[in-house]
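PROTEIN DESIGN WORKSHEET
SECTION A - STRUCTURE
LENGTH: 196
TOKENS:
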């Protein structure tokens, strides 16, 4: 449990180092926030032009607005996020989403209302009509990070998946091996709820 004299940043770093799949933790400095944001926006703009759909990473924007921002280097042993990371929207209507859980993927494969794009991204056929004349966009949504949320003195927790360009930037800054394709990164932003 978090003690009153322990800094929230230290408490979160210590907790993250105990999470299965987290290999290392790096503290994102103010000077790096703008670089990450710029890399993310450029990567999404270029990818969006390539597929003809706007791509927005709401999660990275929100995480970088927090008082503290950490990046965790992780292996495939890190549990999947509690919800879908990537959604396809037509204005505000969700018309597709990423599915992680194997049992849910198996269940959806038998649905006549579902069309799979790749291994785990589904489109809802009954929502196809609502896309006409509307702005389509892929949205990377912010995720919870329960292991951090349970720490006393911490609030407004947001975790985010970054683009490959931002991932490489962070790995370079943290002096992590870039060529290791078996590891990824997760951005975690949070605020302190301590009384000042």
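SECTION B - SEQUENCE
RESIDUE ASSIGNMENT:
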């Amino acid at each position: 449990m978090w003690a009153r004299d322990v800094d929230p940043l230290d408490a979160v770093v210590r907790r993250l180092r105990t999470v299965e799949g987290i290999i290392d933790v790096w503290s994102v400095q103010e000077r790096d926030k703008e670089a990450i944001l710029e890399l993310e926006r450029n990567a999404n703009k270029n990818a969006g032009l390539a597929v003809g759909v706007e791509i927005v990473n709401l999660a990275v924007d929100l995480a970088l607005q927090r008082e503290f921002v950490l990046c965790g280097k992780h292996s495939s042993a890190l549990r999947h996020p509690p919800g879908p990371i990537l959604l396809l929207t037509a204005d505000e209507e969700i018309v597709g989403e990423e599915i992680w859980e194997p049992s849910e993927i198996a269940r959806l494969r038998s649905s006549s209302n579902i069309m799979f794009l790749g291994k785990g991204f589904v489109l809802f056929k009954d929502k196809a009509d609502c896309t006409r004349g509307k702005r389509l966009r892929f949205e990377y949504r912010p995720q919870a990070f329960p292991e951090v949320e349970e720490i006393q003195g911490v609030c407004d927790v947001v975790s985010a998946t970054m683009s490959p360009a931002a991932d490489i930037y962070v790995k370079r800054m943290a002096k992590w091996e870039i060529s290791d394709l078996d590891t990824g990164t997760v951005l975690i932003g949070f605020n302190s709820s301590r009384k000042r």
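SECTION C - NOTES
The mean pLDDT is 90.
The first helix runs from residue 8 to 16.
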